[in-house]
Amino acid sequence: MKKAKAAAPKGQVSKGAAAKPVKGRTSKKQVSRRTAGKSRKSTKKSAKKPTPIALYYWPTPNGHKISIMLEELGVPYALKPVNIGAGEQFAPAFLKISPNNRMPAIVDPDGPGGRPVSLFESGAILQYLGRKFGRFYPQDERARIQVEEWLFWQVGGLGPMAGQANHFLVYAKEAIPYARKRYADEVHRLLGVMNKRLAGRKYLAGTYSIADMACWSWVVSAAKYQPLDEFPHLAAWKERVGARPAVKRGYALGAELRKPMGDAQKAVLFNQRAR
């Protein structure tokens, strides 16, 4: 008996007669090989690298929300700095993406239906990315309700109030006692709400989610003028979230871009009216 030839190494085509189809007759093995070969070729052609999501960003608490989410997801993205101190947020091209002349914003080239889509407003962006990639935004309705409660709590409360407190305590030319106390007290109240919520919980909505990402950088900012000593559960949460590698990367993104704010930058950022 003739010895059978050894099979060709994987990824190579055998040079033996078995690799040649017999005229007028096709074996099942030959059909299988042809089909498999075509499948591998079509897979190679279709396996294109995903086009990065464009992130319009500046290193602020609102910007950090999205850089942290993209880092947590591990998806490719391209940084598009928007220098808010230089007024780049008022550029016509950017206003087409973000009509409120605020960053962050994104452009996803592979949006719904495979067509590009742009989004502004950090809360909307977090929800979109959570839905698209199926992470950090639960599908279970009861769990999702909790995430949305704390996401919108941040968007409507913690962010605006901490932003106003920071303005009057750090940037305002005049020291206005009423304004300083008004917003500092409200931030204190909101931090107390978070502290109670986090008693017995690791994260705001049970498991780590976009709600934690939305709140974290604002708490970091508020802690610069409001010590967290009296909020132990909140302080522990701040450290817990901040220890995540993706959070560290997202928070550090573009840190070198931010410079001390002078009068020229303040004139661009503050006291804007409709254009």
Q: What does the radius of gyration come to?
A: 27 Å
Largest sheet: 4 strands, mixed
CATH third-tier fold name of one domain = Glutathione S-transferase Yfyf (Class Pi), Chain A, domain 2
Helix content: 40-55%
Mean pLDDT across the residues is 88
Tell me the strand percentage band.
5-15%
What separation lies between the terminal Cα atoms?
91 Å
CATH architecture of one domain: Up-down Bundle
Structural class: alpha+beta
Describe the structure.
The chain has 275 residues and is of the alpha+beta class. Among the domains are: 53-135, Glutaredoxin (3-Layer(aba) Sandwich), CATH 3.40.30.10; 141-243, Up-down Bundle (Glutathione S-transferase Yfyf (Class Pi), Chain A, domain 2), CATH 1.20.1050. Helix content is 51%, strand content 7%. A four-stranded mixed β-sheet has the order 2-1-3-4, covered by helices on one side. Helix 2 links the parallel strand 1 and strand 2 (77-81). Helix 2 packs parallel to helix 4 and helix 5 runs parallel beside helix 7 (210-222).
Question: What's a concise summary of this model?
Answer:
Helices cover 51% and strands 7% of the residues.
Task: Please tag this protein with its features.
275 residues; alpha+beta; Glutaredoxin; Glutathione S-transferase Yfyf (Class Pi), Chain A, domain 2; four-stranded mixed beta sheet; 10 helices
